[in-house]
Specification:
0% strand; 70% helix; mainly alpha
């Protein structure tokens, strides 16, 4: 698929002006025309926002105040492309900062309550993209955004919608540091639920779930025992055989976090997990090599065998 075209700020001005809809205009003919224009403009900018170069141009063209107004219209067919633009652009730090300033995190959390699965998906994806720092993670937690995200992965019908589940688990992963500061969700069975998702899911979901398990165990090493009890370690070790760089990075990090727990580490040894991790030190990716080296540290520190024997792995 070809990349989106790159446009200058002046080229964007017309499309951004199309977004200038006032939710308080009423329902007359002119208001409907204005709404239709905003929807058309949002659809066009959503396509353009898929290009990294275009995202900063959209911001500089003054789109964010207009997008914030459109989020408040309550018109799903307008809000979806609006969130689409925002979740594409939220990967850029300056755009994320503008999203925070405009109070749009609250709108994303509210969108998780929609009966429209597509809107829920894009709101979850926007949270995933925005939750890159503790401020945003805490904000999502304080806005009560965690419960609707967990409800998605607890719902057997919604679990069939893999794009929706991928967005939800991505948001859960990025908000893990806030989620696992207390045992509130642990007591509700979140660990068991996450471990059950370490197999039979798409690679994108597996990346998110393994990332969540790493953050969870880093927050409290006692959670390693529950992961082990739920057969999470064999699932994670099996993921080490999948050729996906992001998945290998997150899985090795999760295993490294779990390896700080003695019982978990012993099970990894029994399952030959550290030999697999050792082999990843030769993987043609510096990020995979780095995460593998970090994961093997607890094993090396506690191992009763010689360094020469370790090298033979």
């Amino acid at each position: 698929m070809s990349s989106s075209p790159y446009c200058t700020t002046s080229n964007f001005n017309y499309q951004v002006e199309m977004l200038n809809y006032d939710p308080g205009q009423g329902l007359d003919k002119n208001a409907k025309l204005s709404m239709d224009a905003a929807k058309t403009g949002a659809m066009a900018l959503w396509s353009l926002a898929k290009s990294t170069k275009n995202r900063d141009v959209i911001r500089k063209a003054g789109a964010i105040p207009f997008l914030a107004k459109l989020m408040k219209t309550g018109q799903v067919d307008v809000v979806i492309p609006t969130v689409g633009i925002l979740q594409e652009c939220a990967s850029e730090p300056e755009f994320r900062s503008a999203i925070y300033s405009a109070g749009l995190l609250e709108n994303f959390v509210q969108g998780l309550q929609s009966s429209n699965d597509e809107l829920v998906q894009f709101c979850a994806k926007a949270i995933y993209k925005c939750a890159e720092d503790n401020f945003a993670r805490k904000a999502v937690y304080d806005l009560k955004g965690i419960d609707p995200l967990l409800e998605i992965i607890q719902n057997s019908n919604l679990r069939q919608n893999k794009c929706l589940v991928a967005a939800a688990t991505g948001a859960i992963w990025k908000c893990s540091s806030a989620i696992f500061k207390t045992k509130k969700y642990v007591d509700k069975g979140i660990i068991e639920l996450l471990v059950s998702m370490l197999h039979g899911e798409t690679e994108e979901i597996l990346i998110n779930v393994s990332g969540t398990i790493e953050e969870m165990v880093k927050a409290d090493i006692s959670y390693a025992g529950t992961v082990k009890k739920c057969s999470g370690i064999p699932y994670l070790i099996k993921l080490l055989t999948i050729e996906n760089q992001e998945l290998l990075v997150n899985t090795t990090k999760a295993i490294g976090a779990l390896a700080r727990d003695t019982e978990s580490r012993l099970e990894m040894e029994r399952l030959d997990g550290f030999r697999l991790i050792w082999s990843l030190l030769k993987y043609p990716s510096s990020s995979v090599q780095a995460s593998a080296a970090w994961a093997i540290c607890p094993y090396v520190k506690s191992s009763r065998v010689s360094c020469n024997s370790l090298v033979q792995l």
